[in-house]
Amino acid sequence: SVAPNDLEAFWMPFTANRQFKKAPRMFASAKDMYYTTTDGREVLDGTAGLWCVNAGHCRPKITEAIREQAGELDYAPAFQLGHPKAFELANRLAALAPEGMNHVFYTNSGSESVDTALKIALAYHRVKGEGSRFRLIGRERGYHGINFGGTSVGGIVSNRKMFGTLLTGVDHMPHTHLPEKNAFTRGQPEHGGDLADELERIVTLHDASTVAAVIVEPLAGSTGVLVPPKGYLQRLRDICTKHGILLIFDEVITGYGRLGAPFAADFFGVTPDIMTTAKGLTNGVIPMGAVFVKDEIHDAFMNGPEHMIEFMHGYTYSGNPIASAAALATLDTYEEEGLLTRAGELAPYFEEQLHSLKDCPHVIDIRNMGLVGAIELEPIAGEPTKRAFNAFLKAYEDGLLIRTTGDIIALSPPLIISREEIDILFDKLRKVLMNNI
Ligand code: PMP
């Protein structure tokens, strides 16, 4: 056994605490917009955990639903059998989803949702007699989780390179079609030329009839909040439709209200064929994801027994009762409190405050959409990411949680944030940026 204060024994990979074994940063509890650290300090959550705690922390309704479900039916086998809450949740999700997406596949994470979506796309073409469609196209700077499928289609080369081929037949659209810097643009940038032509070019290069699916985050989150130019997603939709290619939106971050509509598909008015979600589905409390599929796609390979045998897919914990109960209580909370549209109401004020940081030292770009914001900092020569990491540490010390990726600070507060809390967030951040980072 190990002593609780023997931090060496609790060494874990990939935590920021690795460098700080003597003074680790740990949370002991949380309520609504705030975390409390193990040393008793309050930290305003500027990131909704990891873009997931959309309704704020430890919401009684969600906590109670989990408690109740755990005491009533803890587990039901995911195959052949079931339980009513998984069905109830599927109905609720179908009602929330864009028109014509009435089928969901349950998963346990964003990464699993992405792998599920890619397999569904390949299975669909196969049963339609188009098995020659095997190529998957992602986007540079896209993030789709960390499983094999998501690592392959993801656009972060450093995440892929040590694994060699991963999935074959994967290509990536250049990210130049999403202007990396919006030069302090407010809202959605204008279409910077016919940027989606990159997709047309790649599709033509490979022979369109070999391409199965294109996967994009409607707004690239984890890699630095890259806002799509006007018309871009519609152009992708048109190109995919023209060539019989399925369009997958990875809505793991944008799903459940982040942009001010239930999904980015609603926000942009562009409906994909498949949509991946996770995070906000259960308010980040219990692992669960859901992949939404257009009826036509579902029916093509799930309505005949022979296809169902070929397409074996599901997890031990798919539609788990406790996760389903958490998701239902989360949806209730979103709906009762108007949280699925609240980001839209707060966006102008959030944008105003965010852009007021424009003249702080080292700020070279600001981007935002809904309740997502990014502040890009000028890198220190030879020490990439150091400035943003300094900002993270100073913010944390001053009671504010921000997320950094490279030299970019990302903000995605819980959707319950008040105007006063937005003021506190940006006051703290201004202090950090003015403090010689
Ligand atoms: N897709 C997107 C767009 C994401 O942002 C993430 C996580 N940040 C994932 C997939 C992976 O989700 P998870 O970490 O739950 O596997």
Report what the structure shows.
This protein is an alpha/beta fold and 437 residues long. The chain has two domains: 7-55 and 338-433, Alpha-Beta Complex (Aspartate Aminotransferase, domain 1); 64-336, 3-Layer(aba) Sandwich (Aspartate Aminotransferase, domain 2), CATH 3.40.640. The protein is built from 15 helices and 15 strands. It has a seven-stranded mixed beta sheet with strand order 4-10-9-8-7-5-6, with helices on both faces. A four-stranded mixed beta sheet has the order 1-2-3-13. A hairpin with a 2-residue loop joins strand 1 (27-31) and strand 2 (34-37). Helix 2 runs antiparallel to helix 12, helix 3 (84-96) packs parallel to helix 12 and helix 4 crosses helix 10. The radius of gyration is 22 Å and the shape is globular. The mean pLDDT is 91. The chain binds 4'-deoxy-4'-aminopyridoxal-5'-phosphate. 4'-deoxy-4'-aminopyridoxal-5'-phosphate binds next to helix 4. Its cofactor is pyridoxal 5'-phosphate. Belongs to the class-III pyridoxal-phosphate-dependent aminotransferase family. This is Beta-alanine--pyruvate transaminase. Keywords: Aminotransferase, Pyridoxal phosphate, Pyruvate, Transferase. One of its GO terms (biological process) is biotin biosynthetic process.
